[in-house]
Automatic annotation (TrEMBL):
Entry keyword Signal: yes
Superkingdom of this protein's organism: Eukaryota
Alphabetized UniProt keyword annotations: Signal
InterPro entries: RNaseA-like_dom_sf, RNaseA_domain
Name this polypeptide is given: Ribonuclease A-domain domain-containing protein
Species of origin: Maylandia zebra
Domain spans labelled Ribonuclease A-domain: 49-131
Amino acid sequence: LSKSPCFTFDSCTCLLLLLLSTAVFSQNYDDFIVKHTLVKANDVNALEKKTPGKCKGKNTFIDERDEKIFQDMCKAVSKKQFVNLPYNWFDCVTKDIMEPCSYTKENPNEKKRILCEKDKSKNKFLPVHLEAGSA
């Protein structure tokens, strides 16, 4: 058997994981705002408008629309770290994965936390990621 000039399976797997981790960890404040806020309060079907043509199984929204409040979530932070989400939030969960997407609002009892990172352009720590758990 001759050796293929292409990557081995292990090399391809490592490269794929590296690319995926870059996509996951390259989050910023603007993406956070787009992913986790709604223009109209409690409009769970706005999720479909945010991601046309794609049904997302579940997304968490913070029940707040004042951008200063979002920026203040990380006010006491001086390094990259998780903090507990201090505001009301809810999940939009897909009722049916067929198009068009339709969602239902759920208020689970789990805790959520946000990741604060330094935004170099604004020179302050801002939320960039939201996930289940507590800080």
